[in-house]
Structures are given as structure tokens and as C-alpha cells.
Write a structure and sequence with these properties.
about 325 residues, alpha/beta, Rossmann fold, five-stranded parallel sheet, four-stranded parallel sheet, binds phosphoric acid mono(formamide)ester
Length: about 325
């Protein structure tokens, strides 16, 4: 894949080689992210960081990643504070804002909206989450984390067993991660959710065609040899009414007792965050916070490295990072 000037809209764009390219550059970003080294490779460049839906990690880590490469960030947050609230089209917004930016990261509540925006943009657009559809940068950081966590236990991605649990219908992170993992070999997927919130058929078809072993269930069972348990939040913002979301909240929890009963001692615990910590939900309990297998904050940390790598690649400066090093 030629990254320079490309939009990053879906994980479908990638193959194993392009994923490895991103991960190799993400590894090289570590000393810059830790401020052991400093680079000005994107000095003078501007990121348009457009978040029309709530975000903490994705928005701030895109901005942090761009700043760490020497660039500046201009943000718009919330639909109500942009001219979209006055009826402006995504195309017009893209035409205008792409004149002010070198690259744009965007989140929007509607599936397909970031691709629609990209049609009007004259600079690369990176999808920070479009409705229940995709979250490609989250999937990349999740896979990067999985590789690192499994390598620590002496395993690779091929042949692993992953349990995904919770709202698999509306959870865009599990859609994108499943599509990425489908590119690897012989993975066991145990997909645990209420029947009404099961993984969409479109994703199941991709896993089936790639020859993976998939179990769809509404019971926490068959997970005792899982290498990864990937918990998700009930995506209340995608339901027609809050009452509908209430029906499913708290159904599939993970806490220390359940973890010890259903998983092997070194199963890696993941969650894209935010976790819903309200008592009626609490899908990932704080009593696991000291468990060394809890990888949720390592996932969030890795988001900066992955987003730095994507900026370096889409802006065509990946081979110049060291050349523009400056004093720390
Ligand atoms: N994982 C994730 O997308 O988090 P935010 O909603 O905080 O960006």
C-alpha cells in the first residue's frame, strides 16, 4: 500500500505487509513519545482534528501524536459548534477545512460519514470512528497491543483464541478488529453477547470466508483457554431510547471473580475504553485494576504510537523523522 496522501477510512485498505509497516514505524516512535528524543519533522504542518461525537482518547491522542512530531492542532468538537448545525454538507465542510489543514482526523456519529467527508477533502482524512461502522486506528492499536502482549507470553497472533464480549452489534472497535484479525491464520473467535447485540453478519462472513473458527453465544462459556478477552461497553448512544440500552447493561460483566472462574491465569484483558463504571453497567470492574494482565491502559498508550506512525506515513515523512531531530 502507498500511504502517502492516502485516506485511512477502513481496515479493509490494509494487508499484512502494510500493517507491519505501520507497526515498525510505531516502534520507532517510542523514544519521541517518551520525550527521550524530539523531532520537528512536521514543523509548520496543521492537523484538523474534527470530533462531532464525544471522545477522550482518540481525539487527544491524535492531537498529542501530531504535536510530538512537531505539528500544530486545530480542533472542532461537537456538531453544535460547527456549521454542520446550520445544514452545511460534509462535502462543503471538507473542501473548506482541507484548505486550512495538511491532514484531518474526524469522528462523526453516522456510518459512512468520514468517507463522504473525504470525497470533498484535498488532504488525507483519517477515520476516528464513524457511527457503528469502523474505528480503524483503534483496531490497529488493539492489534499492536495484542501482538506485544502475546509475544510476552511467547505466542503470535496466528492460532490464538480471542473472546469478544458485550455489545458486538454497535461496537465499531470489534468490527474493525475482527476484520483485521481475519487477515491472520486459524484464529478462534468466541463472540459472547445478548442475541439482539450479536456481531453483524457482514463481519461473520469475513471471518467465515477466511476460514477462522467462530462460536456465537449468549453464554460466558468455552473461554477457559482464551488468550485474549476483549470486553466492550453497551453503546447506549446507538440505541433508539436509553431504556432499550438499559435492558442489556450489566448482562456481561468481567470482574476478578468471573475472570478467575472462566479464564486461564494469563488471559490478557482488553477494552477499547471508555468503560462504563456506573453500578448498573460496570462491564469491567475496578477490582481487576491491579491484575498484570489488564492491558487497557497499555492499549491507550499505544494509540499515540500508532497515530504518530499514521501521520508520518500519510504525510510521507516516515523516512525523515530522525533527520529532523532537535534538542530535547
Ligand atoms: N476508544 C475510544 O475510541 O475512546 P474515545 O471514545 O475516548 O475516543
Amino acid at each position: 500500500m502507498n500511504f502517502t496522501g492516502s485516506n485511512i477510512l477502513s481496515v479493509e485498505q490494509f494487508d499484512i505487509d502494510s500493517i507491519q509497516t505501520i507497526f515498525t514505524i510505531a516502534d520507532r516512535m517510542q523514544p519521541y513519545a517518551r520525550r527521550q528524543k524530539r523531532t520537528k519533522v512536521l514543523d509548520g504542518a496543521i492537523l484538523g482534528n474534527l470530533f462531532f461525537e464525544p471522545s477522550t482518547r482518540t481525539r487527544v491522542s491524535f492531537g498529542t501524536a501530531f504535536n510530538l512530531l512537531g505539528g500544530e492542532v486545530r480542533e472542532t468538537t461537537g456538531m453544535e459548534s460547527s456549521a454542520l448545525a446550520k445544514g452545511e454538507s460534509l462535502y462543503d465542510t471538507a473542501r473548506v477545512l482541507s484548505s486550512y489543514s495538511d491532514v484531518i482526523a474526524m469522528r462523526h456519529p453516522k456510518s459512512g460519514s468520514v468517507a463522504e467527508f473525504a470525497e470533498g477533502s484535498r488532504v488525507p482524512v483519517i477515520n476516528g470512528g464513524d457511527g457503528a461502522n469502523e474505528h480503524p486506528t483503534q483496531a490497529l492499536l488493539d492489534l499492536y497491543t495484542i501482538k506485544k502482549e502475546l509475544a510476552y507470553h511467547g505466542h503470535g497472533v496466528d492460532g490464538m483464541h480471542i473472546c469478544m464480549m458485550g455489545d458486538l452489534k454497535f461496537g465499531r472497535t470489534v468490527h474493525s478488529l475482527s476484520r483485521l484479525l481475519a487477515m491472520y491464520k486459524d484464529i478462534r473467535f468466541t463472540l459472547i453477547s445478548p442475541r439482539e447485540l450479536a456481531m453483524p453478519d457482514s463481519v461473520l462472513e469475513v471471518l467465515d470466508q477466511a476460514g477462522h473458527h467462530v462460536t456465537v453465544t449468549d453464554q460466558v462459556s468455552g473461554s477457559s483457554d482464551a488468550d485474549i478477552v476483549y470486553q466492550t461497553r453497551i453503546q447506549q448512544e446507538r440505541f433508539t431510547t436509553p431504556q432499550e440500552a438499559d435492558m442489556y447493561r450489566g448482562k456481561f460483566r468481567l470482574n476478578s471473580e468471573i475472570y478467575t472462574k472462566h479464564y486461564k491465569p494469563n488471559t490478557v484483558i482488553m477494552h477499547p475504553l471508555p468503560r462504563d463504571s456506573r453500578a448498573e453497567a460496570n462491564e469491567l470492574d475496578n477490582d481487576l485494576n491491579q491484575n498484570p494482565n489488564l492491558a487497557i491502559f497499555r492499549q491507550a498508550d499505544n494509540g499515540v504510537l500508532i497515530r504518530m506512525a499514521l501521520f508520518a506515513l500519510t504525510l510521507g515523512v516516515a523516512d525523515q523523522i530522525e533527520k529532523y531531530e532537535c534538542d530535547v
